[in-house]
Design a protein that fits this description.
By secondary structure, the chain is an alpha/beta fold. It has a single domain, classed as Alpha-Beta Barrel (TIM Barrel). It has helices spanning 6-19, 25-29, 43-48, 53-63, 80-92, 111-131, 149-170, 186-196, 214-221, 245-254, 271-288; strands at 32-38, 67-71, 96-105, 135-139, 173-177, 201-206, 225-230, 233-236, 239-242, 258-263. An 8-stranded parallel beta barrel has the order 1-2-3-4-5-6-7-10, surrounded by 7 helices. The chain has a two-stranded antiparallel sheet with strand order 8-9. The radius of gyration is 21 Å and the shape is globular.
């Protein structure tokens, strides 16, 4: 250190820290977005066997997407021989397997059914861990026959709390998707998250699933969002309308969302062509946000 001894150097360092400008709350709350692709966009191709998850990862890399959202339904199996090559390919392609989607349903009316659902979630968490995914999607579920909505919410919360304990053991976040049933609208979806009260649980926010007033409901859910499914359409009075992506990104940014915007294509054009165009559009929207 030349003529500056250690004590003098430490004092100088401390003085520098004191005069360093603080980061404002406004800049802390600005969103940070990464483009991703939902496997569900290619559901027909996966069902037909004409496309694989390895193909999806390569496509994401070719299109400049940062992540893939793998719907677990179409994994051929969950052995290490299947999962580890996908994880390696994703890493070597600089594409994150950011989340996996499962069909787990939280609104289970009996202790036995709740325990079975928790066990299923535990198994899928092990799959997510092997793939290197830090997030997993689950559903609130439908209202069981003969039950009230309030009862179903209470059951969903009870199941989700137990699932959250398992997720915490793996360091994996659970996102409850707004997708019909109990989670048709933002208010009940938020109620389930608030009552579960776990740092390992949030909302897998699908911007196209609300049947009406989408931007208001997106804004309500945005502070709880742990993953986002971005669609080219939203519903207004249950009719599809083009989604205003700049408006959605502004809402998410104001809520301080940092994470993936996974394109989920559900229209009828060839998804290979449509998704490529949407990724390019999303990357430009992110740059302009």
């Amino acid at each position: 250190m030349g003529n500056m001894n250690r004590r003098t150097w430490m004092k100088a360092l401390a003085a520098t820290a004191l005069v360093r400008p603080r980061v404002s709350m406004a800049s802390e709350s600005k969103g940070r977005f990464r483009a991703a692709i939902c496997a569900y966009s290619f559901r027909d191709q996966f069902k037909a066997g004409s496309m694989t998850y390895a193909d999806l990862i390569r496509m994401a890399a070719d299109l400049g997407a940062d992540g893939v959202d793998l719907t677990a339904y179409w994994l051929t199996d969950t052995t290490d021989q299947t999962l580890f090559p996908l994880r390696k390919l994703a890493y070597r392609s600089a594409v994150a397997i950011c989340t996996i989607g499962t069909g787990a349903s939280m609104a289970q009316p009996t202790p036995q059914l709740q325990a079975a659902e928790v066990e299923g979630v535990r198994k899928w968490l092990a799959v997510a861990e092997k793939l290197g995914a830090s997030h997993m999607r689950v559903f609130g579920g439908d209202i069981p026959k003969g039950a009230s909505e309030d009862q179903a919410v209470a059951w969903a919360v009870e199941t989700l709390k137990r699932c959250a304990v398992e997720a915490a053991k793996k360091g994996i976040t659970l996102g409850v998707e707004d997708d019909g049933g109990l989670t048709t609208n933002a208010d009940r979806t938020m109620e389930i998250i608030r009552k579960t009260d776990s740092p390992w649980v949030g909302i897998n926010l699908d911007v196209g699933n609300f049947p009406d007033n989408p931007y208001t409901q997106i804004e309500m859910c945005a502070p709880y969002a742990t993953n986002v499914h971005l669609k080219s359409q939203v519903q207004i009075a249950r009719k599809n309308q083009p989604a205003d992506w700049p408006r959605i990104l502004k809402i998410l940014g104001n809520a301080g969302y940092h994470g993936y915007l996974a394109i989920e294509y559900e229209l009828t054009d060839d998804p290979r062509t449509a998704v490529a165009k949407l990724v390019a559009r999303l990357r430009e929207t992110i740059r302009s946000a």
